[in-house]
């Protein structure tokens, strides 16, 4: 038996978009395409339309298409965004879009950036959990209302999309800087009472490329698609590192 519910109508065309897309590697160029402008159209829809209808060689990344994985991130009119959650109507300027790969990362090809150095900096920031064994082998119990748990919980929704990294001017000036995502991860770990190496995490972010290199401009917080506040996390790291130095723990 067929449902009597109304079927969704096809999206309405609103005209055309002029889309300038980065092609090639770091020494590439912008190439212009004309794309139909439709209602409720996302930037990822635009890129997909170009790849399917105009140029099948266009290279870009995507996976979930629903704002969960972050793999579709790229520069949209100069700002880093998840393209699957960015509606054309909000960002197009006079019917024009400019799309480039994420800033501050090497270009693989077209709109795909090489994420290697981004994740290498998570490693350099000692962004891995060091478990604390309990004496009786039981589970470690954590008070969800403790200040430490709340501080850790505020940053754990980072999915490693590198939007904050692309937004960060300090990364542009200082390629050794660990970056907001790696430092945010370190902040969650030093506030996790289950972690066995708080001093190790602090030592990893205390050098010239660590938390004190941050200029507190707040671009990472402004652009984070998940609404996280890496700026606050980095400020917390600065205070924690200073306290550890004064106590002689570093």
Summarize the structure.
This protein is 33% helix and 16% strand. It is of the alpha+beta class.
Can you walk me through this structure?
It is a single chain. With 250 residues, the chain is of the alpha+beta class. It has two domains: 13-113, Beta-grasp domain (Ubiquitin-like (UB roll)), CATH 3.10.20.30; 116-247, Orthogonal Bundle (Fumarate Reductase Iron-sulfur Protein, Chain B, domain 2), CATH 1.10.1060. Helices cover 33% and strands 16% of the residues. It has ten helices and seven strands. It has helices spanning 43-53, 88-91, 116-124, 147-153, 163-167, 169-173, 180-190, 198-204, 219-223, 230-247, and strands at residues 13-23, 29-38, 73-76, 79-82, 96-100, 107-109, 112-113. A five-stranded mixed β-sheet has the order 2-1-5-3-4. The chain is elongated.
Strand content: 15-25%
- Strand line-up in the sheet with most strands: 2-1-5-3-4
Radius of gyration: 22 Å
Shape: elongated
Low-confidence stretches: 1-10
| Percent in helix | 25-40%
Give the CA-CA distance, first to last residue.
71 Å
CATH architecture of the largest domain: Orthogonal Bundle
CATH superfamily of the largest domain: Alpha-helical ferredoxin
Helix/strand class: alpha+beta
Quote the average pLDDT.
92
Element-by-element helix/strand order: EEHEEHEEEHHHHHHHH
Determine the CATH topology of the largest domain: Fumarate Reductase Iron-sulfur Protein, Chain B, domain 2
Number of DSSP strand runs? 7
> How many strands, which pairing sense, and closed or not: the largest β-sheet?
5 strands, mixed
């Amino acid at each position: 038996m067929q449902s009597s519910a109304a079927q969704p109508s096809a999206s309405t065309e609103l005209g055309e978009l002029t889309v300038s897309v980065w092609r090639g590697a770091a020494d590439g160029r912008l190439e212009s395409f004309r794309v139909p402008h439709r209602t409720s159209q996302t930037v990822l829809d635009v890129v997909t339309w170009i790849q399917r209808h105009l140029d099948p060689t266009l290279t870009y990344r995507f996976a979930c298409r629903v704002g969960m994985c972050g793999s579709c991130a790229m520069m949209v009119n100069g700002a880093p965004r998840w393209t699957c959650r960015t509606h054309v109507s909000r960002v197009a300027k006079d019917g024009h879009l400019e799309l480039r790969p994420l800033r501050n990362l090497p270009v693989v090809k077209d709109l795909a950036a090489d994420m290697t150095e981004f994740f290498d900096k998570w490693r350099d920031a000692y962004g891995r959990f060091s478990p604390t064994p309990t004496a009786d082998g039981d589970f470690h119990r954590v008070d969800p209302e403790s200040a430490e748990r709340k501080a850790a919980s505020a940053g754990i929704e980072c999915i490693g999309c590198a939007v904050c990294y692309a937004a960060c001017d300090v990364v542009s000036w200082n390629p050794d800087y660990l970056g907001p995502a790696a430092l945010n991860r370190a902040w969650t770990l030093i506030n996790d009472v289950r972690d066995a190496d708080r001093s190790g995490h602090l030592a990893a972010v205390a050098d010239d490329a660590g938390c004190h290199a941050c200029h507190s401009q707040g671009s990472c917080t402004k652009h984070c698609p998940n609404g996280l506040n890496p700026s606050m996390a980095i400020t917390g790291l600065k205070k924690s590192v200073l306290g550890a130095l004064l106590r002689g723990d570093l």
